[in-house]
């Protein structure tokens, strides 16, 4: 019930060299659970923004009244990574020992915001649902922790895909839940949902 909403949400998008350089933003209005209406879109060219500083942007919505006020900062990725299973981080025993010392009980209050990190090895899926007419799917996996999101590559025409990727997330809230969702890539259309699992960090 507001024409001037304030969200005050922070999202971290992990920007890698193989991703596109445009940030696409959509604003939606929700009447109830079934009815949604697009209120406008805007786009930000990431490559045109200065790095290592916070950029305050007022973005007019295309073909609709209104604008968005955003703060966008581009900085080197820290604490997050995607790697292959064969070059898995933390594989070195000396590195694991350094990490154990860093997060031991006596160092708990050295940096309150540095809670720790989560490493997830996404190996494979088995017996997925067929989403294509050919009886196959083009599955990829999306991992979400808080407002952080990373995803695997797509394995085409396969109901038993193997990704063998290692994802590392910084943990900002120990009460967060890791959500792992499998989608079927569908060209220019929105991906089809194939399944989901939620894992509370406190259960790990």
What does this entry look like structurally?
The protein is mainly beta and 204 residues long. The protein has 2 domains: 22-74, no CATH class; 81-203, C2 domain (Immunoglobulin-like, Sandwich). The protein contains 1 helix and 11 strands, in the order βββββαββββββ. It has a 4-stranded antiparallel sheet, with no helix packed on it. Strand 10 and strand 11 form a beta hairpin. The mean pLDDT is 85.
> What structural category arises from helix and sheet content?
mainly beta
If helices are DSSP runs of H or I spanning 4 or more residues, what is the number of helices? 1
Instruction: Please report the distance between the alpha carbons of the first and last residues.
Output: 40 Å
* Average predicted local confidence, pLDDT: 85
CATH architecture of the largest domain: Sandwich
Total beta strands: 11
Count of discrete structural domains: 2
Write the CATH homologous superfamily of the largest domain: C2 domain
Sheet-strand content, in percent, reads 35-45%
Give the helix level as a range of percent: under 10%
What do we call the CATH topology of the largest domain?
Immunoglobulin-like
Low-confidence parts lasting 5 or more residues at pLDDT below 50? none
Order of helices and strands, N to C?
A: EEEEEHEEEEEE
Describe the largest sheet: 4 strands, antiparallel
Shape: globular
What is the radius of gyration computed over CA atoms, rounded to a whole number of angstroms?
20 Å
Pfam family, one: C2
Main location: membrane
Keywords: Calcium, Membrane, Metal-binding, Repeat, Transmembrane, Transmembrane helix
Protein name: MCTP2 protein
């Amino acid at each position: 019930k507001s024409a001037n909403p304030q969200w005050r949400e922070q999202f971290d998008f992990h920007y890698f060299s193989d991703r596109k350089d445009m940030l696409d933003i959509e604003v939606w209005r929700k009447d109830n659970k079934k009815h949604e209406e697009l209120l406008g879109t805007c786009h930000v060219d990431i490559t045109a923004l200065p790095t290592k500083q916070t950029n305050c942007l007022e973005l007019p919505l295309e073909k609709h009244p209104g604008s968005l006020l955003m703060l966008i900062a581009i900085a080197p990725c820290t604490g997050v990574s995607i790697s292959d299973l064969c070059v898995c981080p933390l594989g070195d025993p000396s590195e694991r020992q350094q990490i154990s010392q860093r997060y031991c009980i006596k160092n708990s209050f050295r940096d309150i915001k540095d809670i720790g990190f989560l490493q997830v090895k996404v190996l494979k899926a088995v017996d997925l649902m067929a989403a294509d007419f050919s009886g196959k799917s083009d599955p990829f996996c999306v991992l979400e922790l808080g407002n952080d999101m990373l995803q695997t590559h797509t394995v085409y025409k396969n109901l038993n895909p193997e990704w063998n990727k290692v994802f590392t997330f910084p943990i900002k809230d120990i009460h967060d839940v890791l959500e792992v969702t499998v989608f079927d890539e569908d060209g220019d259309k929105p991906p089809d949902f194939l399944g989901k699992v939620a894992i509370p960090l406190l259960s790990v």
